[in-house]
Amino acid sequence: IPPRNFIFEPTVRDVGPAVCLSLSIVGKKHPNSPVAILWSDHFVKKERRFREVLHFAEALVEKSNNSLIFIGQRARFANQNLGWIEFGEETQEIRGTKIFKFKKLIYRPSLAQAESFLDQNFAWNPGYFVTTPKFLLSQFKRYTPNLYRSILTIKDEKTLGEIYPTLEKISFDNAILEKIDTKYASVIAADLGWSDVGAWEALKEALQVST
Known about the structure:
By secondary structure, the protein is α+β, with helices and mostly antiparallel strands. Helix content is 37%, strand content 26%. It has helices at 15-26, 47-63, 111-117, 133-143, 145-152, 157-163, 172-177, 200-210, and strands at residues 35-37, 42-44, 68-73, 83-94, 97-107, 122-131, 185-190, 194-196. It has a five-stranded mixed beta barrel with strand order 3-6-4-5-7. Strands 2-8 form a two-stranded antiparallel ribbon. A hairpin with a 2-residue loop joins strand 4 (83-94) and strand 5. Helix 1 (15-26) crosses helix 5 and helix 4 (133-143) crosses helix 5 (145-152).
């Protein structure tokens, strides 16, 4: 990866500003190209399936630039420490993989809720999304206008160092995902062998999945 393709935060301001900054830079050259928002500290056992789902999401976004695709992990148990994606009716199918309407996010449900989700249209939320810079920036402009305007004033490393530390700390979920109009969003819920290994119990379960 060329060094110029790395984007570094001068200070931590949560995920919302980080995503907005990254896509404002990528969007200058590739406004309508599909981009995937992924995290580096997860375990994904089924890499081939993961790549396949990403390509399906890319194809959906190429057909409709004004869209955001949630990638969900089919739930293996009633996990209270994760976010959950509720999805609606099936809208289409790509080579055996079903695409659903997005309904809403629920973060860290009660045990009773999580247990009930196992028999309903819910999936774990790994925090993976495919969209375009232009569309997502339009959502930042709509829902977090102050953050959006501040990001646009960043032109170089000097202004990055001056402006970025003053930005509101806000998660990507709070900034965009909890507010997005559901007509723009779809869900691919698949078994990726995914686990968030940020907690001991998750690590134990991930090790069991991998054997």
